[in-house]
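Recall that a protein's primary structure is simply its ordered list of amino acids. Everything else, from secondary elements to tertiary packing, is in principle encoded there. The following example makes that idea concrete.
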Amino acid sequence: MEERRKYMRFDVSLNIEYMVSGNSIPIEGISFSKNLSREGMQLILDKNLVPGMELEFKLRIPGDAAPIYAKGAIVWLDKAKKKGEPSVGIRFSQISAFDRNRILEYVYNEWVEKTIGEKS
């Protein structure tokens, strides 16, 4: 199967606060990321959501006091609950370039640390 992603995904777990935008009944909660990339993230999420729904996010990078705010849309969902973790794929629709770079710097540093640790 051919890989369709444009950007590398990094396996990083961050706490994510989310809220479904424009919904008459508020859907909000706290979840965590399974992986992150330049363009989006995979969230462990078992709410009743569908592709196309817009979400607002607040996430915090460990050791960084300033939260990151972003918006994104669900592009896929995995109801199969592989490994007991139902998940959704999110594509960022609004995130500042500065915050995107903060995420990328963090996930890259985590990846380097993990990679070096595995080689030791």
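The chain has one domain: 15-119. The chain has a mean pLDDT of 87.
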